[in-house]
Amino acid sequence: MSYNIAIDGPAGAGKSTIAKKLAERLSFLYVDTGAMYRAMAYYFLSHHIRAEEEDRIREACGDISIDIIYRDGTQRVLLNQEDVSEKIRQEEVGNMASATSGYPFVRQKLLNLQRSLACSNDVIMDGRDIGTAILPDADLKIYLTASPEARAKRRYLELVQKNIPCDLEAIKRDIEERDDRDMHRKIAPLRAAEDARILDSSDMGIEEVLSAIEEMVRENRKEEKISGEPQQKRENR
After folding, report:
1. Which of 63, 97, 67, 70 is nearest to 82 (CA)?
2. Eight-class DSSP state of 198
3. pLDDT band at residue 229 using 50, 70 and 90 as cut-offs
4. How many CB atoms within 10 Å of residue 187?
5. First-to-last C-alpha distance (Å) of the chain
6. Which residues lie closer than 8 Å to 193 by C-beta, 6 or more apart?
7. What is the DSSP letter of 147?
8. Are 200 and 146 in contact (CB under 8 A)?
9. How far apart are CA 48 and CA 51, in angstroms?
């Protein structure tokens, strides 16, 4: 019986970092849905397709193949058999992913793969709408957030460590614009699921966040063991 953890939240909240480390500790499969959308965005950019060109994006979806594989314990993202794991981490790609992820045909392209992985594995999946749209029956839903200032500072320090030129205020503006776009898109907007546990990491370190979520998992599993809820949920699917 698979156990699913959904982690949602705005850009820069540390979802991927936390989800990866938590998956290692719990021996779960980590599914980076954001990387899947970024892979599609990278394809659009590399083929000179603009975010507003809806018809071209719809047509391009038929030419895209995305696979998630693991090499030496590390998740790799393949776009049409090419490993693009590093290429998709550029800021330009992230902005394109945010701008195009609201198209229903883009979302449908990835939905079946994501749900299939969750049905057959213990998974931790992070994104913008995992608990509200992708895995509405997830055993544990977490909305991981942080203030725009805290998220901008983290991103700034990350880029500085990589010797990438950046501006803190520009990063903060970009984050706020992305938040607004994600929260107001017509299809599956960013929001906390009604039964999600809210975790604000603005003043927390990585270990503190991990410990808090591990405690949530322990509590949740105790509750479900008593109620038998996971079996009931899956029988009702």
Report:
1. 67
2. E
3. low
4. 13
5. 14
6. 6, 8, 131, 132, 136, 141, 143
7. -
8. yes
9. 10
Of the candidates 101, 121, 132, 87, the residue with the CA atom closest to the CA atom of residue 34: 101
Amino acid at 9: G
Token pair recorded at residue 152: 């901008």
Residue 190 has pLDDT above 80, yes or no: yes
Beta strands in 4-65 (DSSP E): 4-8, 29-32
Question: And the tokens for 192?
Answer: 């906390």
Instruction: Say if residues 93 and 51 touch (Cβ distance below 8 Å).
Output: no
* Predicted confidence (pLDDT) at residue 73 exceeds the cutoff of 90: no
Tokens 């009702």 map to which residue?
236
- β-sheet bridge partners, residue 124: 5, 30
Neighbours of 120 (CB within 10 A): 10
Based on the number of CB atoms within 10 Å of its own CB, is 90 exposed (0-12), middle (13-18) or buried (19 or more)?
middle
Model pTM?
0.76
Identify whether the C-beta of residue 133 lies closer than 8 Å to the C-beta of residue 125: no
Return d(Cα 26, Cα 111) in angstroms, integer.
Answer: 24
